[in-house]
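Case study 2.
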Amino acid sequence: MSRTSYRHADRAAGRLEGALTRIARTGGKLIDPAVLFGIAVLVAFFLGLEWLIATDRVSRAVVALPSDAIAGMFSPDFRGDLIGACLLTFRLIAVAMILEVLVAIPVGYLLYRKPVLGTAYEGWLAALFAAPLFLLYPLFMVIIGRNNYTLIFMGFIAGIIPIIIHARLAFMTVPQTLINVGKSFNLPEATIFRKIILPSGAPTIFSGIRLGLIYTLINIIAIEFLVDSGGLGRMISDRYFRFDIVGTYSAIAAVALVSITLNLIISRLEKMVR
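Prediction:
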């Protein structure tokens, strides 16, 4: 090979190295290493589970192969029902969460502004948070009916309590100095709340919202499963009682996707508020 060819090869190698370096730097900015680590652990877990089931160390009558469960989500016979069930459950949870936020933040602010009320009802809220409110679903099915409104209400009463508790705590931790600065500029109370108090308390408030999402999701899916109504919970129940193990785990995987989607939306909203 001539010297000219060596120079061209060196230049090409240099360009390739530079391109790979830029891609690595860009990927590092776009993808959090903690997220990559979490994905790697999850993939390793499912690969290990796949191996255990494939080698009959775990019975296929109890746990489906992860690959079969994922493939089952895209099968023609299953996909139509799954999309409809996902959309229905997503709407129920989203409506319940919106109502929870619209009610919980003003109530938390009221308990913050009125310390007497906050002290009086703090223990009550903690007791309700620990109580199994899920067991009230037969009562509300009689009062409201066996419909989606009951599912939304049961998700609402389970998820609103942690949001109220965290909202009050968030407002209490806002530095008084920031509020005094707003008052020194003669800002209206609503502006102080919107520009100072709410952004300062956003991390704690959104922690409560994520906790509320967990309880809302569990309640709605569980009631759908028990009363054979609604979306994904009903689909899990249907596949379970038909001994369709793969279909059951495919529906459970869809529940995980709905949860991840809602968490991503909440994270996006938190960045907008902050």
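Residues 75 and 82 are 10 Å apart (CA to CA).
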